[in-house]
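seq/struct pair 1
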Amino acid sequence: MRTPFKDLDDYLAIPRVTGLRMSPDGTWLAASVATVSADGKKMLSSIWRIDPAGGPARRLTRSAEGEGSPRFLPDGSLLFISKRPGPDGSDSGTGARPALWLLPADGGEARVIASLPGGVSAVHTGSAGGIVVAGAVMDAIREDFGANASTAEADERLRAARADAGVGAILHESGIVRFWDSDLGPDDLRLFAVSEDSPPRDLTPDASRAFVEHTFAVSPDGAWAATNWYRWHGERCHCDLVLIEIATGHRKVLLSAPDADFHTPSFAPDGRSLACVRAAHDREDGPGDSTLVLVSLDPGGEPADLLPGFDRQPGELAWEPEGRCGYFCADDGGRRPVFRADLARTEVTRVTADAGHYAELAVSPDGTVLYALRDSVGEPPTAVRIDVATGEFERLAAPGQQLPVPGTLSEVVAVADDGQPLRAWLALPEGASAGSPAPLLLWVHGGPRNSWNSWSWRWNPWLMAARGYAVLLPDPSLSTGYGLHHVKRGYRDWGPRTFGDLMAITDAAVAREDVDGTRTAMMGGSFGGYMANWIAGHTGRFNAIVSHASLWAMDQMMATTDAPASFLPEFADPEVLAANSPHRHVAAITTPMLVIHGDRDYRVPIGEALRLWWDLQRHGKTAKFLYFPDENHWVLSPGNVRAWYSTVHAFLAHYVLGEPWQRPELL
């Protein structure tokens, strides 16, 4: 069977649907679709028009810089963010920075309606009007740069002065300094009100580090913006939910608790209340839980839990037009179904019953249909129409859907030594049988609070199945979708508890006649890389181990990561930290290891890989080190993705399949 998973260029050429929005009248859907750029060096997105009735999809935008983040105005005009030049080839005042563009509903050329010196990074609108964007602004605009100037003008002057002076330094006086793969400062994110007849107006001039990451929404009437707002106190922080009057910039705190974060707001259709996620902080005695809460915008309103007793972690609420119920998604047993929350009865029911992973929910104007992106471990994201009465879905015509995968997907179950049921997906290659069993690749997910329940473009098991491996994708302790108890099992016990779960599910997989237990490998990234390192020091059952973006020396990692405070409740005790550190077991490693890391990874800093590599070298272990000076936690550029998979394939072929070592081209 012809499949795009046997050749990396064919695989990278597959269109990827990454976002979905419904027009105000429900007659069409705007989707973001990413493809490889003409030079093959990056991914670019464009906006497509998808027909809810099932007609053919049509591409709406084309530029060398790409377009994304589609949003609608009440008249059906489409907003999007892009670095594209203007129709006449000029930069239209954007200076090659992302700007906000408008494509009129009645046709014609797109035009810029808002630009910022630091670029526009996000946009939201109200159903009846109002536009709010996020963008970075220099945090320390001094008086000599800002006298008689708007925020944008003063910002531009200071940026130019730094560039002219050759200054790239950042002076920090408090708070965190990096986030994932970005340096924080000297500018910070803020929110701006946008209208076509005036410059963007700063709604949050005192934001500073309030928006390390932001989730915000605009009320239906366009009068209010609701957003998360980080409050920093020493080494820790919590996240309030604040309400901002767009006309005046007046801000008030709507929800706040020192031991919880409030984020991902969604206004009710009548604009009088909103729902958001409340995520309780982890404590020394256990992990925090998440739920959806509803709060009135009237003074004194207390939040009401919409999901009492619901033992899953919900995402954003999509409202039914009358506001009587809402729909949300949550991990559940290796899937991510759609659920309905009845607001009056605080009752939750499951809508979809298939094995899909759902996201980007939108409700039709009459409330009878949901639109969403649906994917699974065996199918990439595509737009679907869901009948809310039956839960049945229908795929809509869109790029890149229903690819032929090189094998079959099934489930493996086991029982841990403490009696906990365990499960995993198994991607079995074509031709695997009792007479021709496939070598096994155990692939552990990152997180650790995560689940193998969706399609992954970056960590794709079918690229390995196409080369003959049976790929085991387990959800051990700490995984989501199995209740808070499953997370608690591995809390403060990352190494030993998760190791026990992984060995139990691996035993169940190799007991199959179509799996070869004598030829096995293990790999993982981030937390999966941590487990790769832990497994390497605790068993020699695998022929090869691949450790990507991994945690190695826990005391070092917890002090140099971009978010050290987030680990404090779990690992503040030095003895617990030491007991979970893989580096203490380096002498016991006997398995050949491939270490992979990107230099711009700030969540798991490069020091982890450098120390792991040195420890393996000085102990005389068999290892290789694939280093990406220009990549982050994930390794995203197409060329480097090719290098990543080519090296992994060569490494496993040598140590698992017994083939001669072949150094990948260009490395």
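seq/struct pair 2
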Amino acid sequence: MGVGHLTERIASWVAGVKYSDIPGRVREKAKLQVLSVLGSLYPGGESEAGRKVLEAVRGWRQEGPCTLIPPGDRISLHGALFANAAFSMAYDFDDYLFMGHTGHSAVLAPLALGEARDRVSGEELLTAQVIANEVGGRLGGSVLVGPHNGQAWSYIHVLEGACAASRLLGLDAEKTADAISVALYQPPFPLFPGFFAGETKVLTGSQPLLQGVMAAELAARGLRGSREILDHPRGFFRHFAYLPLPQLFGGLGKSWVTDTLAYKKYPGCAYIDTTVDALLQIREDYREKHGRPLEPGDIQRVEVGASRMTTAMDHLSRTFGVGRGDMTPILINFSIPLSAAITLLAGELTPRQLDGAYLEGEGERIRALAERVHLRHMPRLTLEVVDALDRGGVGILSSVRARDLLRASRQMRGGGAGVTLDSSDLPLLLPLVLRRITRGKHPLDMEKVQFERVTLPFPAEVTVRLKDGQALRARQDIPLGGPGRPPEETRATVENKFRQEASRHLPPERVEEALRRIQSLEKMGSARELPPLLCAGRGN
């Protein structure tokens, strides 16, 4: 097979990479990702939307070798992929990396495929998982400047599913290239009204993941696709990027975007995490100083300063419902005032606070406190985010010309991206453009990018003003569980998340056994050993 087209280069790496090629630190982060994604399945399966998906999938009556987690039903490979990915998406309790929310596919596709096939070892499962992370993160990064953003890059799950399945189906590079080409022939993407309103967001990973795995199954039987599907002038990048960055696919096997994995401690968009961290710190400090909890009646006003990414997220939540008084789990996931109000009222933010019964009982108090939460954009915090990526060695902006950056920014303005630009952002754009002019254009050498040094800060400065005149302040830059936090703290955060959610379904000894098995996943002789441990009524 030639390697002239991008699909061929990706396929060659997917088919050839070995478990031993993956650095030990990357494997450890991948195992934490397994724990984090599994931790999201338990509450997601109990959510209102999750229960509806479960009923529908059960109605398909497709018995098979795979497991629905947590209910434990035995079902077909396709049914397990669809339902489990929906459960993991339900409360926005997933993980993310540079650039994409990859775990819905990277973890759940190998897990289901490992059950469906004989003799898939723990090493093979982890290899397929890392492969999916690497290609998914790079595809998201390649369309960073485009009409979609974040979870709206749902087409990354098509590529992840195709590559993970190709690897575990034993396809060679030729057929893997066909799987990629077939998968991306009709790339899916969500529409914002359905993402923020109703319950269809729960399907954001399900349908694309299934499409990708099916593409590999078709390629295994000889169906061919166009190798130019990504880089043809009328191919993928033409439609999904204002400024295509295919160079992000360089460095496969040399630099590892899996190094940038961030694991959510709270259900909700990544941009709310640092605000919640800061509020919980303020509550703790107040209790230590005054010997009693901070009460809503004490609070006059809450001020949150954040980056453009956070304010844009919050604006979208208001556009699609919060401004009308709606309060659904999805809108809370993207609303700073609602998430902050729940955190201050409950002293925590977990899936339990997104349950319908809780929201119905506490809705009036949540709304009243949310009206006292005020969010504003702080340009210097946005620049800190950009500078953190530059310091980490990614340097994407250094690889493009200033005029291309300006042209793309004009296209993004009002173009539907999650982060839009307007005239108020000129103070942000000018330093970036000047930096490009003074430094010149430099090729992006992905082989030299040290993703293990990258941090993903979403800084938030929070002030709680009390009625007695006190001002309580806290700042958080990198969310708990994010790259750049102390490794032992991150491990404890993820393990506690898994314990917290799994313990609602499993006895304590089963939770600890599952935890131990995942921590040594590479030693597992058969991937079929894991799913039964995760479901009540099954396992040893």
